[in-house]
Amino acid sequence: MAEVTPMMLQYQSIKKQHDDKVLFFRLGDFYEMFNDDAIEVSNLLNLTLTKRNGQPMCGIPYHAAKIYIARLLRLGKRIAICEQTSLAQNAKTLAQREVVEVITPGSAVEEEYLESGANNFLASMSFSKGRAGFAYIDVSTSAFYATSWSLSDNIDEFPKELGRCNPRELLLPQSLRDVESVQKILELHSGISISYYPDWQFS
């Protein structure tokens, strides 16, 4: 069994904090991805998959990162950018690294990540007091819309709103993971990146 190096321990610690994202881990002039991230991204972007100490890895040049990030965002992936924030003091110490930016399909604002002439909506829905509330925003233009409807009408109204705004990303309360009618609707909109958060954040 290959020994886990200090650098990989550092990577694993940071990855654990961003387990639901692709971690772009800065090593010199490249962003490297390891293990499951490397396997998935190499398949999605047709990159060469190699190994380091027996662990899968793939990398992209730092100067070309935005091209690859844009492609991953269009595929619904969330990305955590991990940069080197201080130099190693000597050959026996590690450079410090930390995540400096998280980019998601619905929160991207840089021109390279957006489709020209199309809105980039981030949407959210929650249930409260017998009603569903639905809102969506284009962070790049500040366009914002909100509406609500009776929960008894959700099977009709929720897909209508998804079709109307065609969001890139949808934020939902954890409790809606277990609502079968909501999950069936989401299955028909598989291109949307979905994130779940604690219910109290929607109050």
Task: Based on the model shown, name its key terms.
single chain, 203 residues, alpha/beta, 6-stranded mixed sheet, 5-stranded mixed sheet, 11 strands
Tell me the major beta sheet. 6 strands, mixed
User: What fraction of the residues are assigned to beta strands by DSSP?
Assistant: 25-35%
Number of strands: 11
- Spatially, the strands of the biggest sheet line up as 3-4-2-1-5-6
- Alpha-carbon distance between the termini? 48 Å
Shape: elongated
| Rg, alpha carbons | 20 Å
Low-confidence stretches: none
Helix coverage percent of residues? 25-40%
SS-based class? alpha/beta
- The count of helical stretches stands at 5
Secondary-structure element order, N to C: HEEHEEHEEEEEHEHE
**Arithmetic mean pLDDT:** 92
Structure description:
The protein is α/β, with parallel strands linked by helices and 203 residues long. Helix content is 26%, strand content 35%. The chain has five helices and eleven strands, in the order αββαββαβββββαβαβ. It has helices spanning 6-17, 35-45, 65-74, 154-165, 180-187; strands at residues 22-27, 30-34, 50-52, 55-61, 79-86, 96-103, 121-128, 131-138, 143-150, 169-173, 193-197. A six-stranded mixed beta sheet has the order 3-4-2-1-5-6, with helices on both faces. Strands 9-8-7-10-11 form a five-stranded mixed beta sheet, with helices on one face. Helix 4 runs parallel beside helix 5 (180-187). It is elongated and about 65 Å long. The mean pLDDT is 92.
